[in-house]
Amino acid sequence: MILAETAFSTQDSVKERLETILAKLFLKLIPQDVFVNMSAKRYGYPNQDIGEFIKGEMSIYDHQTGIRVMSAAFSFSSKEQLQNIQAPTLVIIAQYNPQTHAQGKLLAELIPNARLEIIPQANHMANLDNPQMFNQSVFAFLNEST
Asked: Distance between CA 45 and CA 126 in Å, rounded?
């Protein structure tokens, strides 16, 4: 199994719970276009084309849909099930997306037979930001697992 830029919860620590509360409030207060532009700027580094892609995808949804999507992500938790994963697992995180680093490391610890890879010079969409390193990591993992 390959998990790229994945989290198992946003409520695992007091800090994450506070950040989630603030993020939900923030999302309700700002217009959708501001949220879209902020996301495109944040995740469009180092590749501005990715930012434009994100902007295009997020612009499809109205504000209420954006809030519902983010609320679903904020309320999801799979921590209790991680120990039951039996498949060899590659957990991928990106160098420039530090908010996934702690959970990525913990994912790799909690899933039996998992390992962690950090894709350099990549952000939230590591497969597009640095496809060569992403693919190299995935192919090496798949070759080891077969």
From this structure: 11
